[in-house]
Amino acid sequence: MSPSDQALLAKLTHPGETKADVIRRALHELERREWVLAAQEDAERIDASGEDLNDESDAW
Fold it and tell me: What domain of life is recorded for the organism (predicted)?
């Protein structure tokens, strides 16, 4: 692990956390960001298609 990686881990570590905890938290955040990006891309695709979801009846 590079010195900059070690410094980043030290900076992001909360009291009582291990390095594994920090990495796990970072992976969950990365997964959340990927989900948000995919949702944004879906919304942009729907908008570009001209589809208006407000015009469609509710599924329930």
Answer: Bacteria
The pTM score is: 0.70
Q: Is residue 27 part of a domain?
A: yes
Please state, in angstroms and rounded to a whole number, the distance separating the CA atoms of residues 50 and 30.
31
Q: Which domain holds residue 19?
A: 3-49
Q: Structural domain tally of the chain?
A: 1
Residues 6+ apart with CB under 8 A from 1: 9
Q: Count each helix (H run) and each strand (E run) in the chain, helices first.
A: 2, 0
